[in-house]
Amino acid sequence: INLIVAGSVNTLMNKIFKDKKQPLFGRQTETIHVRPFKPSVLKEIMSEYCPDYKKSDLLALYTLTGGVAKYVELFIDRKKFTEKKMMDMFFERDSYFLPEGKNMLVDEFGKDYGIYFSILTLIAQGKNTRSELENALNIKELSGYLKNLSEEYGLISKMQPIYEKSSNKNVHYAINDQFLKFWFRFIYKYTHIIEAGGNDKLKAIAERDFTTVSEKSLESYFNEVLKESGAYTRLGYWHDRKGENEIDIVTEDELDNKIEFIEVKRQVKNFDENILKAKSELFFKAVGSFKRYEIIYRGLSIEDM
Length: 305
What we know:
Blueprint: H1 10-18, H2 39-49, H3 55-65, H4 69-77, H5 83-90, H6 100-109, H7 113-124, H8 130-137, H9 143-152, E1 156-159, E2 172-175, H10 178-188, H11 191-195, H12 199-229, E3 234-239, E4 246-253, E5 258-264, H13 273-287, E6 294-300
Parallel strand pairs: 5-6
Antiparallel strand pairs: 1-2, 3-4, 4-5
């Protein structure tokens, strides 16, 4: 017998195969996690269906779908290949996307979905440390909820600056899924606007903030591109203890003795190599020198997608 079990509710799949009291506990031969399309695949799709696409259109597709096959398919089937058409479809009155976040997660979270949704909304807005979240929600202890979101549901990651030695210092939380980042930032936060029939008003808010939001997506996009290349032994970001100086991407190749500092900007004209070099000096003071390493400084923009 070859039995294949497919499911989309993470907690239920964990219960079936990881709960010691369940008859299928430990019996699976293999577990496959279906992951989103990689950036290279998204580029192939856009090239095939819209050969003259702009880089901003590719960034919009990544920001709104994160490469999830179902979401990409919805846009492609309806020939929504430009940023404007994607945004129009996303916010239309009977859009598939508007209830999707809630439909996806209510069963996962059960009766506690309200607190989990509030945490994810705050993280999507940039409040990403435990103290910021606890202060915003007026709750003294959120560690259990954050642990569940990270380990049980796999929805957030515990982020720390590269080379941070302590596992508990400088911890920031980030939503893993690009679609959910956008959904909690604009849809769940502004549910009252949708209920009032103000879909066009909400789309205007999203369009107003899209440059800022998509620039963060651009960082995630290039992180995925660099991971896909397999060229590095270590990859992450860095900021100082006060959070005043930040380097978007730091890569290390321990075989070829190279360290690279990368700044991500939507527009290439906004990249200043001298500022990046100044930040790298602070990095070396905090982390230590990399003797006999080749040091590379690079700016990446939407044109490099």
